[in-house]
Amino acid sequence: MQIHIPFHWTLRTWVGRSPLLFNAVFGSINDGERLARADSGLVIEGFPRSANSFSVFAFLNAGAGGLKIAHHVHSPSQIITAARYRLPAVLVIRAPDDAVAAGLAKIATHTAPDLLRAYFLYYRFLAPMREHYVVAPFETVTTDFGRIVDAVNRRFGTSFDPIHADRHTQLSKEFHALERFKALSATTALVRDTPSPPNYHGPMADRARAEHSRFLELARDDDTV
User: Fold this and answer.
1) Cα→Cα distances 166→96, 170, 172, 224, 225, Å
2) Angle formed at CA 120 by CA 116 and CA 126, multiple of 5 degrees
3) Range of the domain at 20
4) Is 1 domain-assigned?
5) For the range 156-159, what are the long-range contacts, defined as Cβ-Cβ under 8 Å and sequence gap of 24 or more?
6) CA dist., res. 46 & res. 118, Å (int)
7) Is 192 helix (H, G, I), strand (E, B) or coil?
8) Which of 99, 109, 172, 211 is at a distance of 20 to 30 A from 116, taking alpha carbons?
């Protein structure tokens, strides 16, 4: 279910500072199985259109298939819950211009100001919890996911299967084939053909880019960039 109001993502992100409030307000429009809880085995979250889906797909093929994976809620509450229960967590991040352009292409009624504001708030809220997640930059997720798996194993003492270069290439092909199949099966009423060229201006765009730069520095500490 999609809700389209001018400040939808900003509102979601603000409310997401409180997992209890977020789940009460937005839980009904999210698959309950995707919400992070005490019994979750892994949390994979990030701003929309940041390779969240491939990250979940890759971990499922790295031995996480038997775990309850919390994912695709796109709310700070997910990582906050992971920190509370000391769950392994991955925070994916993509350059804001690209993430916002992809978001506008996905749902035509989104607005760039709302998405940029929500992007900035999303990562700003989670910065103080830095020790509770591995930062997974979009570029590494899509080219060398094994580095993300290795970082999670180091930080959380997990034993996910390594993903070497050849395996990553194979997973990428399988994932894109699956996505093409889904696209052919789904309605395209709300989907534009291509993203608008990223060209966002103003203070909020600058703040979003600054958050992205800050998290890339954190990713260097995780050896994921």
Assistant:
1) 29, 6, 10, 18, 19
2) 145
3) 8-222
4) no
5) 156/88, 158/88, 159/63
6) 12
7) coil
8) 172
- Whether 192 contacts 94, CB under 8 Å: no
- The rounded distance, in Å, linking the Cα atoms of 112 and 114 is 5
Q: In total, how many domains does the chain have?
A: 1
Buried b (16+ CB within 10 A) or exposed e, 213-222: ebbbebbeeb
Q: What CATH number does the domain containing 197 carry?
A: 3.40.50
Question: For strand 89-93 and strand 42-46, is the pairing parallel, antiparallel, or unpaired?
Answer: parallel
User: Identity (one letter) of the amino acid at 10?
Assistant: T
Lookup result for tokens 């937005």: 26
Residue tagged 């500490």 (tokens): 221
Amino acid at 216: L
Single pTM value for the model = 0.90
pLDDT per residue, tens digit, the chain (225 aa), is 455 566 889 999 999 999 999 998 877 666 678 999 999 999 999 999 999 999 999 999 999 999 999 999 999 999 999 999 999 999 999 999 999 999 998 877 789 999 999 999 999 999 999 999 999 999 999 999 999 999 999 999 999 999 999 999 999 999 999 988 887 765 443 334 445 556 788 999 999 999 999 999 999 999 999
